[in-house]
Amino acid sequence: MTWLRKPWVGPLAFVVVAFVAFSLPPYLTGDRLQARVQSDWGPHYPLLVMHVVCASIAIVTCVVQIWPWFRGRFPVWHRRIGRVYVFAGVLPAGLSGLVIGWMTPFGPVAQVSTILLSVLWLTFTWLAWRAARRRQFRDHRKWMIRSFALTVSIITNRIWGVAAFLWLSDRVPEAELPFLVAGISTWAGWTIPLLLSQWWLERKPRRRAAVEQREAVSVG
Protein backbone atom coordinates (compact mmCIF):
# COMPACT_ATOMS: atom_id res chain seq x y z
CA MET A 1 0.00 0.00 0.00
CA THR A 2 2.93 2.33 0.65
CA TRP A 3 4.12 1.91 -2.92
CA LEU A 4 0.59 2.48 -4.24
CA ARG A 5 0.31 5.75 -2.31
CA LYS A 6 3.68 6.91 -3.67
CA PRO A 7 3.71 5.54 -7.24
CA TRP A 8 6.45 7.94 -8.33
CA VAL A 9 9.15 6.28 -6.19
CA GLY A 10 9.71 3.23 -8.40
CA PRO A 11 9.83 5.01 -11.79
CA LEU A 12 12.05 7.76 -10.36
CA ALA A 13 14.49 5.24 -8.93
CA PHE A 14 14.58 3.37 -12.25
CA VAL A 15 15.29 6.54 -14.25
CA VAL A 16 18.03 7.63 -11.85
CA VAL A 17 19.77 4.25 -11.80
CA ALA A 18 19.56 3.98 -15.60
CA PHE A 19 20.94 7.49 -16.02
CA VAL A 20 23.87 6.87 -13.68
CA ALA A 21 24.61 3.50 -15.30
CA PHE A 22 24.79 5.22 -18.69
CA SER A 23 26.61 8.41 -17.68
CA LEU A 24 29.14 7.34 -15.07
CA PRO A 25 31.23 4.49 -16.64
CA PRO A 26 33.09 6.62 -19.25
CA TYR A 27 34.50 8.74 -16.42
CA LEU A 28 35.85 5.74 -14.51
CA THR A 29 38.29 4.73 -17.24
CA GLY A 30 40.78 7.58 -16.85
CA ASP A 31 40.59 8.19 -20.60
CA ARG A 32 40.10 11.88 -21.38
CA LEU A 33 38.79 11.09 -24.84
CA GLN A 34 35.74 9.34 -23.38
CA ALA A 35 34.64 12.46 -21.50
CA ARG A 36 31.52 13.97 -23.01
CA VAL A 37 32.85 17.48 -22.36
CA GLN A 38 36.28 18.23 -23.80
CA SER A 39 38.52 21.11 -22.71
CA ASP A 40 42.13 22.12 -23.33
CA TRP A 41 42.48 23.34 -19.73
CA GLY A 42 44.61 20.78 -17.87
CA PRO A 43 42.75 20.42 -14.54
CA HIS A 44 39.37 20.29 -16.29
CA TYR A 45 39.30 16.51 -16.72
CA PRO A 46 40.09 15.45 -13.11
CA LEU A 47 37.64 18.06 -11.81
CA LEU A 48 35.03 16.80 -14.27
CA VAL A 49 35.55 13.22 -13.10
CA MET A 50 35.19 14.30 -9.46
CA HIS A 51 32.05 16.25 -10.34
CA VAL A 52 30.43 13.34 -12.19
CA VAL A 53 31.29 10.73 -9.55
CA CYS A 54 30.13 12.87 -6.62
CA ALA A 55 27.01 14.05 -8.46
CA SER A 56 26.17 10.37 -9.09
CA ILE A 57 26.44 9.73 -5.35
CA ALA A 58 24.20 12.72 -4.71
CA ILE A 59 21.49 11.71 -7.17
CA VAL A 60 21.32 8.09 -5.96
CA THR A 61 21.27 8.94 -2.26
CA CYS A 62 18.78 11.73 -2.82
CA VAL A 63 16.18 9.32 -4.20
CA VAL A 64 16.45 7.30 -0.99
CA GLN A 65 16.22 10.44 1.12
CA ILE A 66 12.95 11.68 -0.36
CA TRP A 67 11.28 8.25 -0.14
CA PRO A 68 8.62 8.79 2.58
CA TRP A 69 8.46 5.13 3.64
CA PHE A 70 12.23 4.94 4.15
CA ARG A 71 12.31 8.20 6.12
CA GLY A 72 9.60 7.01 8.46
CA ARG A 73 10.82 3.42 8.85
CA PHE A 74 14.58 4.02 9.13
CA PRO A 75 15.18 7.51 10.59
CA VAL A 76 18.75 6.65 11.68
CA TRP A 77 19.72 5.56 8.19
CA HIS A 78 17.95 8.58 6.79
CA ARG A 79 20.31 10.79 8.79
CA ARG A 80 23.39 8.74 7.84
CA ILE A 81 22.60 8.74 4.14
CA GLY A 82 21.86 12.46 4.44
CA ARG A 83 25.46 12.99 5.53
CA VAL A 84 26.66 11.03 2.51
CA TYR A 85 24.43 13.12 0.27
CA VAL A 86 25.84 16.37 1.66
CA PHE A 87 29.52 15.62 2.21
CA ALA A 88 30.30 12.96 -0.41
CA GLY A 89 27.81 14.16 -2.99
CA VAL A 90 26.67 17.77 -3.19
CA LEU A 91 29.62 19.49 -1.50
CA PRO A 92 32.43 18.16 -3.74
CA ALA A 93 30.19 18.07 -6.82
CA GLY A 94 29.03 21.64 -6.27
CA LEU A 95 32.50 23.03 -5.61
CA SER A 96 33.99 21.29 -8.65
CA GLY A 97 30.97 22.46 -10.64
CA LEU A 98 31.88 26.05 -9.87
CA VAL A 99 35.32 25.58 -11.40
CA ILE A 100 34.36 23.57 -14.46
CA GLY A 101 31.44 25.93 -14.98
CA TRP A 102 33.82 28.87 -15.06
CA MET A 103 36.06 27.02 -17.54
CA THR A 104 33.27 25.63 -19.71
CA PRO A 105 34.03 25.48 -23.45
CA PHE A 106 30.38 26.26 -24.30
CA GLY A 107 30.42 30.03 -23.92
CA PRO A 108 29.24 32.66 -21.41
CA VAL A 109 25.54 31.72 -21.40
CA ALA A 110 26.28 28.17 -20.25
CA GLN A 111 29.00 29.50 -17.96
CA VAL A 112 26.66 31.78 -16.00
CA SER A 113 24.00 29.07 -15.77
CA THR A 114 26.38 26.40 -14.47
CA ILE A 115 27.93 28.70 -11.88
CA LEU A 116 24.53 29.90 -10.64
CA LEU A 117 23.25 26.33 -10.49
CA SER A 118 26.27 25.26 -8.40
CA VAL A 119 25.85 28.18 -6.01
CA LEU A 120 22.14 27.50 -5.50
CA TRP A 121 22.71 23.75 -5.16
CA LEU A 122 25.29 24.27 -2.43
CA THR A 123 23.16 26.92 -0.71
CA PHE A 124 19.90 24.94 -0.69
CA THR A 125 21.66 21.81 0.55
CA TRP A 126 23.42 23.70 3.33
CA LEU A 127 20.13 25.30 4.41
CA ALA A 128 18.48 21.86 4.45
CA TRP A 129 21.35 20.47 6.53
CA ARG A 130 21.25 23.38 8.96
CA ALA A 131 17.49 23.07 9.40
CA ALA A 132 17.82 19.35 10.15
CA ARG A 133 20.55 20.02 12.72
CA ARG A 134 18.22 22.53 14.39
CA ARG A 135 15.35 20.01 14.20
CA GLN A 136 13.36 22.41 12.06
CA PHE A 137 12.00 19.55 10.00
CA ARG A 138 9.41 21.55 8.09
CA ASP A 139 12.09 23.93 6.77
CA HIS A 140 14.41 20.96 6.21
CA ARG A 141 11.85 19.32 3.96
CA LYS A 142 11.33 22.49 1.91
CA TRP A 143 15.03 23.12 1.32
CA MET A 144 15.63 19.46 0.62
CA ILE A 145 12.96 19.43 -2.09
CA ARG A 146 14.67 22.41 -3.74
CA SER A 147 18.05 20.71 -3.42
CA PHE A 148 16.59 17.54 -4.93
CA ALA A 149 15.17 19.49 -7.88
CA LEU A 150 18.65 20.78 -8.68
CA THR A 151 20.25 17.37 -8.11
CA VAL A 152 18.07 15.65 -10.70
CA SER A 153 18.19 18.61 -13.09
CA ILE A 154 21.08 16.97 -14.93
CA ILE A 155 18.57 14.47 -16.31
CA THR A 156 16.23 17.15 -17.63
CA ASN A 157 19.29 18.98 -18.93
CA ARG A 158 19.97 16.07 -21.26
CA ILE A 159 16.34 15.98 -22.40
CA TRP A 160 16.34 19.69 -23.23
CA GLY A 161 19.68 19.26 -24.97
CA VAL A 162 18.29 16.66 -27.34
CA ALA A 163 15.16 18.74 -27.99
CA ALA A 164 17.21 21.88 -28.67
CA PHE A 165 19.54 20.01 -31.02
CA LEU A 166 16.66 18.57 -33.05
CA TRP A 167 15.00 21.98 -33.24
CA LEU A 168 18.10 24.01 -34.14
CA SER A 169 20.21 21.60 -36.18
CA ASP A 170 18.81 22.81 -39.51
CA ARG A 171 18.29 26.42 -38.48
CA VAL A 172 21.68 27.69 -37.28
CA PRO A 173 25.27 27.39 -38.54
CA GLU A 174 27.04 24.25 -37.39
CA ALA A 175 29.74 26.23 -35.57
CA GLU A 176 27.14 27.98 -33.39
CA LEU A 177 25.03 24.91 -32.66
CA PRO A 178 26.93 23.56 -29.59
CA PHE A 179 26.82 26.94 -27.86
CA LEU A 180 23.10 27.44 -28.47
CA VAL A 181 22.20 23.90 -27.41
CA ALA A 182 24.33 24.17 -24.27
CA GLY A 183 22.86 27.56 -23.40
CA ILE A 184 19.27 26.37 -23.74
CA SER A 185 19.75 23.03 -21.99
CA THR A 186 21.78 24.35 -19.07
CA TRP A 187 19.23 27.04 -18.22
CA ALA A 188 16.05 25.06 -18.90
CA GLY A 189 17.51 21.97 -17.23
CA TRP A 190 17.49 23.43 -13.72
CA THR A 191 15.14 26.43 -13.79
CA ILE A 192 12.07 24.42 -14.80
CA PRO A 193 12.50 21.71 -12.11
CA LEU A 194 13.16 24.41 -9.51
CA LEU A 195 10.00 26.30 -10.47
CA LEU A 196 8.01 23.06 -10.37
CA SER A 197 9.38 22.26 -6.93
CA GLN A 198 8.32 25.69 -5.69
CA TRP A 199 4.84 25.16 -7.11
CA TRP A 200 4.72 21.81 -5.32
CA LEU A 201 5.64 23.43 -2.02
CA GLU A 202 2.97 26.11 -2.36
CA ARG A 203 0.08 23.90 -3.44
CA LYS A 204 -2.72 22.97 -1.01
CA PRO A 205 -1.08 24.50 2.07
CA ARG A 206 -3.38 22.90 4.64
CA ARG A 207 -2.88 19.39 3.37
CA ARG A 208 0.85 19.95 3.00
CA ALA A 209 1.14 21.24 6.57
CA ALA A 210 -0.54 18.10 7.88
CA VAL A 211 1.81 15.86 5.90
CA GLU A 212 4.86 17.80 7.08
CA GLN A 213 3.71 17.50 10.70
CA ARG A 214 3.37 13.70 10.41
CA GLU A 215 6.80 13.42 8.76
CA ALA A 216 8.40 15.64 11.41
CA VAL A 217 7.00 13.41 14.15
CA SER A 218 8.23 10.24 12.42
CA VAL A 219 11.73 11.62 11.78
CA GLY A 220 12.05 13.23 15.19
UniProtKB/TrEMBL annotation:
Keywords: Membrane, Transmembrane, Transmembrane helix. The chain crosses the membrane at residues 7-28, 48-70, 82-103, 109-128, 148-168, 180-201. Pfam families: DUF2306 (PF10067). The keyword Coiled coil does not apply. InterPro entries: DUF2306_membrane (IPR018750). This is Uncharacterized membrane protein.
